[in-house]
Amino acid sequence: MEDLVKKLLELGAEHLKADDAPNLVIDKSNIIKSLEIIKDADFNILSDLFAIDYSQYPEHDSKRFAVVYNLYSVSKNERIFLRLELDSDEKIASASDLWKSALVLEREVFDMFGIRFLGHPNLVKLHTPDELEGHPLLKDFPLGESPTLFNDGRFIDPSSFRASLKGASKGLTGYKGGARRGMKRVRE
Amino acid sequence: MSKTITKNNKKETISNKSEFKTKLMRINMGPQHPSTHGVLRLVVDLEGEVVAAVKPQIGYLHTGFEKTMENRSYMQNVTYPNRMDYTASFSHDLAYVLSAEKLMDAVVPIRAQRVRVLLTELNRIASHLIYFATGLLDMGALTLYFYTMREREDILDLFEMIAGARMNYGYFRIGGLAYDVPEGFEEKLRAFISKFPKMMQQYADLFAKNDIFLARSKGIGVLSQEIALDYAMTGPSLRATGVGLDFRKAAPYSGYEDYDFNVPTATAGDVYSRFMVRFEEMGESLKIVEQALNRLEPGPIKDPSRHISLPPRDELASSMEAVIFHFKLVTEGFHPAKAESYVATESARGELGYFLVSDGGSMPYRVKVRVPSLINLQALESACKGGLFADLVMTLASFDPILGDIDK
After folding, report:
1. A163 near B CB under 8 A
2. How do residues B181-191 score in pLDDT, each as one tens digit?
3. In this structure, are B212 and B97 located in the same domain?
4. Of these four, A20, A94, B188, B355, which has the most CB atoms within 10 Å of its CB?
5. Which residue, A150, A148, A174, is CA-closest to A161?
6. How far A151 CA sits from the closest chain B CA (Å)?
């Protein structure tokens, strides 16, 4: 595992802090090269591939999307997460030549986020109907819920109610219940 | 699609003999079809009776669980995971709470872990019982359905005792369990444990040496190890090709390292192996259930931290502190630190894990479910290509697809 991480770091990968499995960020141009290195190190299962839309993440200053590859090696019983960052109009190379499981996973990412994969043989929607405009897991895709109305004209708008529960806000009272890890970080 | 496939050996021999010209025919199987195990549509290209291509079309049951969960607090989200895989609900519940607990650094008491393992394994047995019932039903063997559903009923009665519902339990909580197991549960479970091996013998007598079953499953829908790994197949279907990957052994969680059990494998990779691996797995699961039950000792069932678990009900009447914590947890929930977590678990179908991204708020910023059924299903075409159309039904059944788990 150390050899593999070293090779990836030589390619310009950046190490993210992670407690059990290595979590690396790689530049978009080097993605296929690094995936090939990982595959040569006997990581024979591309277990998962998904995207994260960071557009509403508090204090996030790099690109909008992250695409995460979750790879597992049966012989070594090890797992590695590789990720790359990209903006909404950027395209990335498909990993379907390396692992067949990328075929369906990349379709899912395309359907949910609109990220395009170059070289994918059949990049069409997976879950949502053809008539649906947009990509549902984008943070700006509306939820389509209606406000709760009362007789006296008051109403509760669900999205503004929920906004107080997001990380960017201090919460309803500014109180942080606090996980142990969370409290520790604050003290540090 | 035009009639392009001409170099198929089978086709040439047929047309030489009888001068028939077979044309590639495209038919839709499903979405409303009893043997697709839900609303799955298979677009099948047939050349006579030989399958030339199978394209699964999914999305008829797409519910948007990930989006929903991103807009609910961690505690509210306990309700959703079990609705995805409605035959092995506890597996999904367990995968979600484990990932959320990793985010929160929650400490799960030993009794809660034992009860979780016990219920998850019982649920695995129930799920495999449905697998045998519907799988053999697809073959025309109706009798086994009544036998396996009879024992599944016993398991569901036990679950009803625990959670008040026969499906969609929502009994696990982040940090432990909602409440302790009810009185009388252990006796009822012991009665089931002593009875079940006899019942398994009954199933085996009914199908394991049945000529029709053997003829329709041995050598059918063969999947090689390389192809299965290439498609990221996991679970019993992968173990039927000879890879002994089981996350209960490979990356033990919830104290699975303490239990003594085997991981059954087979090497042929055909429908028969997939059935038999699951059959043996039921016996192993029963062993785990028995061990967990024997080690069940009285003790706490929740993380004692008031920042994670709700205070006990009786304290609310006497302690203002408890009321405040209760109010804060219910209205707002807890706030994990900015972090990510993933715990791979072994569901009845394969690797199942929740990738949670926290932004420091009380709702997960991103929820990604690694569902086993969706990914396993993609290998269907490789297993069916070149086989007969009637075997496609059996091969699909042997993959154990659950549409809630596929469509999310």
Report:
1. no
2. 888 899 999 99
3. yes
4. B355
5. A148
6. 24
